[in-house]
Amino acid sequence: MKKNHRFFGFIREGWLTVLIIFLFLIVWELGVFIDWLSSLFFPPPSVIIATFNKLILNQKLLDHTGITLWRVFLGLILGGVPGLILGLILGWSPRLYRLINPFVAATHPIPKIAILPLIMIIFGIGESSKVFVIALTAFFPLLINTAAGVQQISQIHFEVAKNYGANLTKIFTRVIFPGSLPLILTGLRLSLNLALLVSIAVELVSAQKGLGAMIWLAWQTLRTEELYVSLIMTALLGILFNYFLQRVAVYLVPWKSEQRI
């Protein structure tokens, strides 16, 4: 009974959200129609939807989105995997953590987009510099969250594993990794979202392809409806990323996931 109540509550909340969005779009459309809003800066939703369909059909939006996704996932692999491994090691070794943590604390707050010119001097103006900045962005959230995930594991779990004769490999695979998995997934979610954000920012200033480049070109040519389409696609990617990782969390760590249905 309680589960059914939560299910219908979720349905009601979903319909309420759809209704609010629908009313907002109607007000927007009417506001442009009666000249309350400038169609140059706020093109009506009907025009944005038509432009979205056109850019889907001519492959332009899909091409730019695919390039952005490639940069995001390549940066996530190149930065996230080392961050995960180093985070497990730092969380396991307090001495190494005390040694490395000051460097992490000093370099993590530096905006990665701010050092793009320096990275372009080192790696050139090609794809390598863009991917390196994205990888650097994805590195720190996974490193910090993974280390914190290992450190919050109770010492009792390690003692029980040792009493049963577990070697170092089994301690890592049976205790450390599963015990830190909830925070690892949190770090992965942060890394993925930040990688998308920085990828768009990098494409705005130094790329000819990608959603960021599409936004910049739309601004330069005052094709505002294409700018809105690019922003909507970016938002949809963020929603899909978060939904996918929430489903993964429900499957991998059900004891930590809040299932609303």
Describe the structure in your own words:
The chain is mainly alpha-helical and about 260 residues long. The chain folds into two domains: about 1-35; about 45-250, MetI-like (MetI-like fold), CATH 1.10.3720. It has helices at about 1-35, 45-55, 60-90, 95-105, 115-125, 125-150, 155-165, 170-205, 210-220, 225-250. The longest helix is centred in the C-terminal third of the chain and has 39 residues, at about 170-205. It starts with a helix and ends in a 9-residue tail after the last helix.
Tell me, what is the CATH class of the largest domain? Mainly Alpha
What structural category do the secondary elements indicate?
mainly alpha
> What characterizes the major β-sheet?
none
What's the structural domain tally? Answer: 2
**Corresponding CATH architecture of the largest domain:** Orthogonal Bundle
Mean pLDDT value? 85
Radius of gyration: 23 Å
- How many strand elements? 0
Estimate what percentage of residues fall within beta strands. Answer: under 5%
CATH topology call of the largest domain: MetI-like fold
Q: Tell the overall outline.
A: elongated
Termini gap: 12 Å
In helices, the fraction of residues equals over 70%
Which short descriptors sum up this protein?
81% helix; 261 residues; mainly alpha; MetI-like fold
Brief characterization of the structure:
With 261 residues, the protein is mostly helical.
